[in-house]
């Protein structure tokens, strides 16, 4: 992979993070239902990439990088309890992707 490709991918990733930080109305469960991943998945992938490169990064620090603030703060401000309909759709989506 060229330096340019890496720069472009990094720019796209930063844009995705900015977009998700602005779209707090889009819940993680909805992302999981429709896309099969959520902000927490991105944090896990970020942490795994760091570890593959010998960089220690705990789960909370990775989530803060993705959410732009500590996860507990973000969750308290933006994440209501999942509705029964969301939980049912999530269960159905998991079956479809299993």
Automatic annotation (TrEMBL):
One Pfam family cited in the UniProt record for this chain: DUF1244
Record-linked InterPro entries: SMc04008-like_domain, SMc04008-like_sf
Superkingdom assignment: Bacteria
Signal peptide: none
The SMc04008-like domain, residue ranges: 26-91
Protein name: SMc04008-like domain-containing protein
Native source species: Dokdonella fugitiva
């Amino acid at each position: 992979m060229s330096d340019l490709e890496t720069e472009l991918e990094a720019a796209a990733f930063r844009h995705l993070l900015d977009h998700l930080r602005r779209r707090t109305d889009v819940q993680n469960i909805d992302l999981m239902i429709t896309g099969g991943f959520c902000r927490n998945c991105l944090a896990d992938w970020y942490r795994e990439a760091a570890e593959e490169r010998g960089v220690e990064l705990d789960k909370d620090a990775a989530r803060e990088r993705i959410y732009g603030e500590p996860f507990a703060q973000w969750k308290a401000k933006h994440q209501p309890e999942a509705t029964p309909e969301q939980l049912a759709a999530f269960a159905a989506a998991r079956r479809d992707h299993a």
